[in-house]
Sequence to fold (468 residues):
Amino acid sequence: MELFNSESKKIISDPINVNNPISLQVLGICSALAVTIRLDQAIIMTLAVIFVLCSSNVILSLIRDYIPARVRIVIMLSVIASLVSVVDELLKAYLYDMSKQLSVFVGLIITNCIIMGRAEAFALKNSPSKAFLDGLGNGFGYGLIIIIVSFFRELFGAGTITLPDGGAGYVLWSIPESWYAAGYENIGLLVLSPGAFIILGLVIWAQREMAGIDEEA
Amino acid sequence: MYSNNYTLGFVFIVTLVLGTMLSFTKDSVKSLQDQNLKADVQKTILRSLNFEENLLESNESIEQTFKNYIDAKCVNVEGEIVECNIEEVDIEKNEETLPIYIRMNNEKIEGIALPIAGKGLWSTIFGYIALNPDTDSVLGIQFYKHGETPGLGGEVEKKWFTDNFVNHPIKESNGEITYVPKKIRNENGKIISISVIKGGVDYSKSNKSAIHQVDGISGATVTADGVSDFLLEDLLRYEKTLDKIRDYGTI
Fold:
């Protein structure tokens, strides 16, 4: 199979745009609300989800012809749970501060519906290479949304933009003191979960509008 | 349809492979994780003792700062120094040997950090409280390990909560507000610790105990009550040691 023929392109681009797992299928919302307080957290979370999603898709696709249908959910869960545990252990070893901030939400990747959903709906029916592309596409689709949400939450909620580094994060830009002196204030609501709901709602609206999706029609 | 034996065999093999992968991963990163944990505990102690953040940036600088400034030893409830392997003391059940970390500057005590630990709602919360050399006013408090709900009980580790312990507002006669640390001793010098107050501290003049109280966390009353309880319990274990430091300036 040619890697970048139109079918492969569609497998990658669909979940980023017209079939986005968060904004269209509304999956993976729990972590999308929890880890979007800061941009660096969202970026690391995205990488972790892409890794788990691609690996689980490829592994499950490789053994798809041998999995007895009766135990397929159990097998899917064990593969996903093991991969998530590996990510968790690696974060604790190499990005300790980040793993403390993400706390339980790394472990909760296991219950992220996107991963089980892609395994059941796609990986068990398609070849490993397609399953890999599907994982990549859905991972990027998930990441795109949570990175946009976290960018706005951090910028307007905390007044900073933080990129991941080895430690507690590298502050790329923060709102200058002179703005605060002139009366500017951070919107505290955005740091809390309701703020995430509001931003996520706006992003979903904008994204559906751009993709031209109308559920009423 | 696969036979039962095939299904069982398949599940067995998958479990075996995944289990091996997991234990291999854990084994290869265990020593790195242990170093991180050790540095994290040291960082918590240093933070509670109000060291500047730029000394706490990497594991190496944390270890160096700890070595240079901290005098770590153990005492017993009578306030006598005892032999111990300080890294192996069980913080949660420390009744015989009590670790104590003293910030020294040219033979002078600048702060005393004591481990605190106890039950919150779901988990044991671990942290350190540091006192000024008067063994009364709080220098800082930090929590480093807990399994409380993020956003609720998990807020104990956040700056806004720990800052409550060092920012007691006092209204001056000219209307300006100055901040002093909270105190753990009453007027008679007895240790009464600091309580976390549900709903928030009453800062009116009539509330004489406000200096021994900090604001609670919405939605985390059980965690907050736990913190109040174990803070008092743990401070009382160090009562004789702290009295000694207050009266003689040394243990």
